[in-house]
Amino acid sequence: MGIEVWQGDITGLDVDVIVNAANPTLLGGGGVDGAIHRAAGPGLLAECERLPELRPGVRCPTGEVRATGGHGLPARHVFHTVGPVWREGQHDEAALLANCYWQSLRLAAQMGLESIAFPAISCGVYGFPLHQAAQIAATETTTWQKSHTRPLRIILVAFNATAFKLYQQALAATGQMPVPDMPPSSHGLLPVT
């Protein structure tokens, strides 16, 4: 076991679940959220629309997760999690982001899923500093993997070379080296570009 780091398009991964860095409406948006909705097709939006609103415009509060099918994606499921908007780290942003990872891993284990892929949650328009987010992702995933058997594969998906390097450094800081690169065909994953 170990945490894998890959660079590329999360929507092409053939895994049990990909995590969507969603907004509270769960109705699509920009960045990873928009890419996942476009790749999944209209069935994903329709399923998200059927999820109950907890209050107007909020189907998933910050730090929580909601599950849907993968629809047109190679992934069988999509976990929608809402990361925190960065406000200078003064509003529990780190704890809320950590909860996005932990709750997604917990749900994957409850569902008996073997593989999960995470984007850099909150690092787009929500403005979370990438180096801090990478440290949180590495800490939460390695801590989870030390005490749980599922999911077996945890993949941190980097959107560019900078994110790829920061994920590797963050994993090394936890005492874990990322899983060595293997031919993409053996995983059904996209190559590092």
Describe this structure in words.
Helix content is about 35%, strand content about 15%. The protein has about 190 residues and is of the alpha/beta class. The longest helix has 18 residues, at about 95-110.
Features:
single chain, 193 residues, alpha/beta, 6 strands, 16% strand, disordered C terminus
Task: Characterize the largest beta sheet: strand count, sense, and whether it forms a barrel.
Answer: 6 strands, mixed
Measured between the Cα atoms of the first and last residue, the distance is 24 Å
**What is the global morphology?**
globular
- The helicity comes to 25-40%
Report the total helices: 5
Strand order of the largest sheet: 1-6-5-2-4-3
Class by alpha and beta content = alpha/beta
Radius of gyration: 15 Å
Helix-strand sequence: EEHHEEHEHEH
Spans of at least 5 consecutive residues with low confidence = 182-193
- Count of beta strands: 6
